[in-house]
Design a protein that fits this description.
By secondary structure, the protein is an alpha/beta fold. It contains 8 helices and 8 strands. Helix 4 packs across helix 5 (160-167). Mean pLDDT is 92; it is low at 268-274.
């Protein structure tokens, strides 16, 4: 019997070439994803990438596996339905900060709560890049580089890790597009986690947010073990600067849907007179 051929990262890329802007952090995430697939020996025919709408949501077309480019903000809903119907598949949802935390925010909250065994990668560049630079749910309140908000949005930005924790996500990690090897490791661990795993990736958009090149000097890798206590994690996520990377929280719990109960053997003689 022939041994299966071990695929390399490049073997997971499709013939479609990315059309992201030069310098976009999403290139690194694509490379990291294919590295993770190669490290795990993921079968292309058993893998599905699901996305919504946005720059990041183009990614499924660039990977040689099954994919679904869905409606804006609905990637998680589609991915959960697919995983529940086909639990044998590796299902990964992905999207941007606008797709995931604005129009898709309700689906994100309930995906964390339900804990279906799948992975969600949020490629967070703090801006609506595809529609020319509007403020997103994670944009800093004083960001004044958009003509639509010349004085800054003036709204407190979401803290995705804190939101995920409050909604019940059992596994939360954060990566940075400038460190693709770390992202590959995080994605591999996320896929192997038995439950809903959330990976927020700080992905720079130098077209509309050139100041994000400063992230390289700010990002720092967390050396401590992942937190397992929700109260401690809440303290971290609410008060940190949002630039710590690594697996930040890991507290496994029962997945949904629950496993069906084992069938009970029945006494076929009950109810009969012998």
């Amino acid at each position: 019997m022939n041994e299966p051929v071990k695929l390399k990262a490049k073997d997971y890329k499709s013939a479609v070439k990315p059309i992201w802007c030069p310098g976009c952090g999403h290139f690194s995430i694509l490379n990291a994803l294919t590295k993770a697939f190669a490290a795990l020996g993921i079968a292309k025919d058993d893998t599905v990438l699901v996305s919504g709408i946005g720059c990041s949501s183009r990614l499924p077309a660039y990977v040689d596996s099954y994919g679904f480019h869905g409606v804006h903000g609905r990637g998680l809903a589609i991915a959960q339905g697919l995983k529940v119907a086909r639990p044998d598949l590796t299902v990964i949802a992905m999207g941007g900060d606008g797709d995931g935390f604005s129009i898709g925010g309700n689906h994100f909250i309930h995906a964390c709560r339900r804990n279906v065994n799948m992975t969600y990668i949020a490629m967070d560049n703090e801006v609506y890049g595809m529609t020319k630079g509007q403020a997103s749910p994670t944009t800093p309140a004083d960001w004044d580089h958009s003509k639509l908000t010349p004085h800054g949005p003036g709204v407190r930005p979401f803290k995705p890790a804190a939101l995920a924790l409050a909604a019940g996500a059992p596994w939360i990690a954060r990566g940075y597009s400038g460190n693709p090897n770390q992202i590959a490791k995080l994605i591999a661990e996320a896929i192997e986690h038995p439950g809903f795993s959330f990976v927020q990736v700080l992905s720079q958009c130098i077209t509309f947010c050139p100041e994000q090149t400063d992230w390289k000097a700010i990002v720092n890798e967390r050396e401590e073990a992942p937190l397992v206590d929700a109260d401690e994690a809440a303290q971290l996520f609410l008060h940190e600067d949002g630039f710590q990377t690594g697996v930040l929280y890991n507290a496994p719990r029962a997945t949904w849907p629950p496993s069906p109960p084992e069938p009970q053997s029945q006494d076929i003689t009950r109810g009969f007179c012998l």
